[in-house]
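thought: user wants a sequence for this fold. calling inverse folding tool.
action: design(structure=
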């Protein structure tokens, strides 16, 4: 008899929530390609709950033909995670991305073939072949696969962070807490899976009742990923073209990068481009009539600072100049007008360039003419 008790209801609600968010992500207008990958990732995670939701509700007792239904696509979890992390911050997927799903495809074909067997043959295959050989190999392969893709995703994010630091003037606008949430959630998923598999293989055989805490934990991960994934669905991150630009026609040794950097910095000052929040190296290179490779090399070799540091130094100097002129606007208002995106980014950058907080610097430079405390905002 099919009966929904507290255990099946708990898993069913989590699975239903994850499935709903997956559908919504498919229709989300922003980041369509990345959101579809996240929807697929959530769908795979939801499917992982289904055998236990159906088992606790009694579906397998009433409909034994459901055995070997293709619910477990664990070998697709890692590839979907990695491709989602990449696609969210790059213009396209890597070449031959489909190869990442070959192991999952093989496992899906195997499961579908087993699912199509007559019931008596299914039971024989499960007892003689699947549980002895296939299931342990699949579990081990899924664990190794997810671990490898987690490492690859973390490494990719570190490379993106380094690029963001050097190429985007206001990286705080694109805080990476969402990436940390995704990677931590799947990392915890991996850790809990390894723990329960170790217990099952080496300490004591676990039945589906023993594994209930494992799937309650998975349910919590589904809820977190669903809520945060939907909240972040429309945020557009600066796009990093992982492929290098074509080699410049002029060799590096033939170019006076100091002269070019000084000239380009003056053009940025003359146009007051630093006042634009989110100003990027690619946009500045376009206005200068050059490419990102040249612009980056000029700032780094000619001025000894990356693009981000050059732009933020101009912003700090502009704020200092306005304060020195006796302007009475609140400091935060001045900072925002000079291109800073937030109070936190202004405070951080100002301290990096002056060695003092904005408040300390203002106090030290205006001891003889104190600022009205009602004007101070930082």
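)
observation: tool returned 378 residues.
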């Amino acid at each position: 008899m099919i009966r929904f008790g507290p255990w099946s209801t708990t898993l069913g609600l989590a699975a239903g929530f994850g499935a709903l968010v997956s559908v919504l992500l498919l229709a989300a207008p922003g980041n369509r390609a990345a959101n579809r990958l996240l929807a697929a990732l959530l769908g795979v995670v939801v499917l992982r709950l289904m055998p236990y939701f159906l088992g606790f509700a009694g579906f397998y007792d009433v409909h034994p033909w459901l055995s070997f239904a293709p619910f477990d696509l664990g070998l697709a979890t890692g590839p979907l995670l990695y491709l989602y992390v990449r696609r969210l911050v790059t213009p396209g997927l890597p070449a031959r991305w489909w190869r990442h799903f070959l192991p999952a495809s093989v496992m899906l074909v195997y499961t579908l073939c087993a699912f199509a067997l007559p019931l008596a043959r299914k039971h024989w295959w499960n007892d003689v072949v699947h549980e002895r050989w296939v299931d342990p190999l699949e579990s081990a392969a899924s664990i190794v696969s997810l671990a490898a893709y987690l490492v690859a995703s973390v490494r990719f994010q570190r490379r993106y962070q380094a690029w963001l630091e050097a190429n985007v003037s206001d990286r705080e606008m694109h805080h990476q807490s969402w990436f940390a949430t995704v990677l931590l959630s799947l990392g915890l998923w991996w850790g809990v899976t390894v723990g329960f598999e170790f217990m099952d293989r080496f300490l004591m055989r676990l039945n589906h009742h023993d594994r209930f805490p494992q799937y309650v934990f998975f349910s919590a991960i589904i809820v977190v990923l669903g809520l945060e994934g939907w909240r972040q669905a429309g945020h557009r991150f600066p796009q990093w073209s992982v492929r290098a630009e074509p080699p410049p026609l002029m060799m590096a040794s033939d170019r006076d990068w100091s002269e070019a950097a000084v000239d380009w910095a003056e053009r940025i000052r003359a146009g007051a481009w630093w006042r634009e929040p989110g100003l990027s190296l690619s946009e500045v290179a376009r206005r200068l009539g050059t490419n990102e490779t040249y612009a980056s090399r000029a700032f780094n070799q000619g001025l000894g600072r990356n693009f981000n540091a050059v732009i933020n130094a101009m912003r700090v100097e502009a704020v200092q100049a306005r304060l020195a002129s006796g302007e009475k606007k609140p400091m935060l208002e001045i900072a925002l007008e000079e291109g800073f995106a937030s109070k936190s980014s202004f405070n951080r950058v100002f301290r990096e360039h002056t060695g003092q907080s904005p408040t300390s610097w203002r106090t030290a430079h205006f001891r003889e003419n104190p600022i009205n405390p009602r004007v101070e905002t930082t």
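thought: summarizing for user.
answer: Here is the designed sequence. Residues 244-253, 368-378 have pLDDT under 50 and may be disordered.
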